[in-house]
Amino acid sequence: MQVGIKFSTAIHVILAACFFKDEKVTSEFIAGSINTNPVIVRRLLGTLKAAGLVNVVAGVGGVSLAKEPKDITLLQIFNAVNDKEKLFKIHSDSPKACPLGGKIEG
């Protein structure tokens, strides 16, 4: 799965758990709203659970948020699903003498 797809799908999962908090939110339900396979959603749920963002009850127990929605940031979601990728891809051809580009690239 591409980084952008994982991230946007994870956001969808978090939003579904928040929006439908009074209903049983299952991987099948979420997969239907994303138009993807429930296995993909279950894998993503495992990652989000490991990051402490969701609670998952095995079987058809459903998904709930592990924190208050206001305490979940986009960066937390991104970091949960993208352990190798950086948030921003920085071009690497700035002149080192440039006071901006030389510092951004580190």
From TrEMBL:
Species of provenance: Campylobacter concisus
PANTHER family xrefs: HTH-TYPE TRANSCRIPTIONAL REGULATOR YWGB-RELATED, WINGED HELIX-TURN-HELIX TRANSCRIPTIONAL REGULATOR, RRF2 FAMILY
Superkingdom of origin organism: Bacteria
Gene Ontology terms: cellular component: cytosol
Protein name: Transcriptional regulator
GO molecular function, one term: DNA-binding transcription factor activity
